[in-house]
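Technical note accompanying the year-one report. For the benefit of new consortium partners, we illustrate the data format agreed upon in the data management plan: each record pairs a sequence with a structure-token string. No post-processing was applied to the example shown here.
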Amino acid sequence: MATAEAIEREVEACLAAAMPDVDLREVVLMGAGDDAMVRVVVDHPGGVDHGVCEAVTRAMWAEGLGDRFGIEVWSPGPEPPLRVRRHYEAAVGHRVRLKVADGGGKPRTREGVLAAIGADSVSLVNDGGAREIALADIRRAYDLEPHGADA
């Protein structure tokens, strides 16, 4: 059984080759066995419409992903996921929601303004002050103000 990280790398490589203008925002592997599903969230400079979703689905099928998984393609919606460094960099100054691993327990949700991104961590500021959070501990992240607070 392929790991979620391996599937993410496979989808990333597929889209980088077939549709380099598509921005892969999130890959979620759901279910197992014959019921396994891969949900991808993508963005596109011209927006994400049915045509973009169809083209992404076709590219994934061409790489054999559709033979192993059901495929869902979504637009990023009003709270786009942050997956790679450039997503975090674009969100500096925005309010974000992070799911953070807390020492082997259930991930905790942290919300605040993304003040900075360092080599291995982000600085999150909220009513409790500033907090450094290791990038390796972030399980999911969402930009709650993708167009900035003034938009």
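Partners are asked to follow this layout when depositing records. The chain is about 25% helix and 35% strand.
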